[in-house]
Amino acid sequence: MTDTTYLYSTIQYAHDPSSGERLNAGVIVFAPATGYLRAAMAPTRGRLAEAFAHFDTKLYTTVRHQVERSVDALCQAPGDITLRFSLDDPAQGKARFADILHSIWSDNGLGYRFGDTGAGVSRAAELDVVVDRLLDRLVTSQSGSQDGRIRRSAEDVWRVFRGPLHDVGVTRMLAPKIIRGTGGFELSFDHALHNGRWHILEPLTMDYADRSGIRDAVLRWLGNGVALQEAEEDPILHFLVGRPSDPALLDDYRRATDTLRAKVPVSHEVHEEDKAEQFAEEMSALMR
Fold first, then answer.
1. CA distances from 125 to 9, 34, 44, 128, 165 (A)
2. Residue-range definition of the domain harbouring residue 257
3. Which of 128, 170, 206, 242 is the most exposed place for a label (fewest CB within 10 A)?
4. What is the reported pLDDT for 45?
């Protein structure tokens, strides 16, 4: 397999730029020889919200989606930005990477900016693994888990589905959406698209260390379903489900997915992670 040099940068958040204090919120990786470009931001806002009073979680979601859409747009139609070039001149390569970063996100005083540039070498086919490892090392490992029972987060499950969705051009059509239900109850979703009706793509992990986590995940969505019954938008929920890594919990997982299919009281579908490519094709066909 061919080795390739990649450049990377952190995506940082500065709550008060004058203080100089920043926390890493994500990473972006670029391999000039292949044109590979991918960004990934922290799976939860918890660390930033805990560190900074009055942290704007809705803005975080907006920034995250804008970065992802910009990367998708560059990969599909780079325009004036060249994504393939030689790194024979490291200084020039770093400058061109800076141009790419600027085209993806210009801070505009919102507190999000790129950090210093680093570099590494990886097999070209393993760059997705590089992104995940950098995200874990530079971002997610710096904060404690919000729930020690979780083996894989909802963001981990989303990454399984996001790849196929990106390949068929669906991710560039996704946007955050707030649905208002019974009694003013609101639910905020990170991944939604509209085609005559709102389709909500909701990653749902069932990869817990014990069956109580699986049970609680199902109960939470039975309750959310009740709250959404009177939503004006009448959305379709697409549960993107990650299965347990512990074989001893597979029976509990099957019962849980059966319950989701039968009992959630709004329009919905359940998509298991081994069918991620099939789901992507279905969504692509829906948007044509």
1. 20, 10, 27, 8, 19
2. 154-286
3. 128
4. 61
For residue 149, tell me if it sits in a domain.
no
Q: Evaluate whether residue 233 is within a structural domain.
A: yes
Q: What is the pLDDT of residues 165-181, one digit of tens each?
A: 999 999 989 988 888 87
Name the pTM for this structure. Answer: 0.60
Integer Cα distance of 198 and 210 in angstroms:
34
Q: Which two structure tokens, joined as six digits, stand for 21?
A: 């204090």
Domain end position, chosen among 115, 142, 169? 142
Largest CA-CA distance found in the chain, in angstroms, rounded: 61
pLDDT in tens, 236-282: 999 999 999 989 999 999 999 999 999 999 999 999 999 999 999 99
How much is the pLDDT for 135? 85
* Judgement on whether residues 14 and 126 belong to the same structural domain of the protein: yes
Task: Give the residue from 30, 74, 269, 48 showing the smallest Cα distance to 161.
Answer: 269
Q: Does residue 146 register a pLDDT over 50?
A: no
Q: Is residue 148 part of a domain?
A: no
Nearest to 198 by CA among 174, 181, 220: 174
User: In this structure, are strands 175-180 and 112-123 parallel, antiparallel, or unpaired?
Assistant: unpaired
CATH assignment at residue 183: 3.40.1350
